[in-house]
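Sequence only, no structure available. Ideas?
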Amino acid sequence: MCHVWESPGSFLRMQLKNCLKINMKDMYRKQWNMDLWNDSRTNTDHANKLRNYRGFKQDCALEPYLLYIKDRETRSSLTKLRISAHKLQIEKGRYYPQRRPVKERTCTFCGNVPVESEVHFLMYCDLYCGERGQMFENIQSMYPVFDSLPEVEKYHFLMTVNEADACHTVARFVRDSIRRRSQIM
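Reply:
I predicted one. Tokens follow.
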């Protein structure tokens, strides 16, 4: 915006304000995108903590679930899963005194075979199969095409639903599953 500084008085106050607002938003979005995709660490086990989030987050905008879900615990549970601020092994393994390789951060409820990631938690973990079946059934009734989606797209779909009832369905599953998990552990 050097041109504004070099020729004072050539811009009306509103023009200057709008130009500044647009430039600030653009700078923020660029920085947001750089931070989201920053994998400059040399050790891939310690790569960007937002690996899950960037798989489905497309732009820097308010997510509809934040407006639809009024219950703080429910909204917080879904947010924590989305941004990897939870107690699943994929994250806990980062903070052990001797950091565990990702492949060793296995699910304690599924016979220590699969990595306990956000995808595993939402889509596959044996501990929540009954609740998950109910969630999938509810989502299927709202979105008949859901069942025909590939597994990865199902996960992304569940993490980005834009309809209030679907947001509540997914968020309640996440909240209830986290509660159940914490009671067992």
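Residues 1-36 form one domain.
Hope that gets you unstuck.
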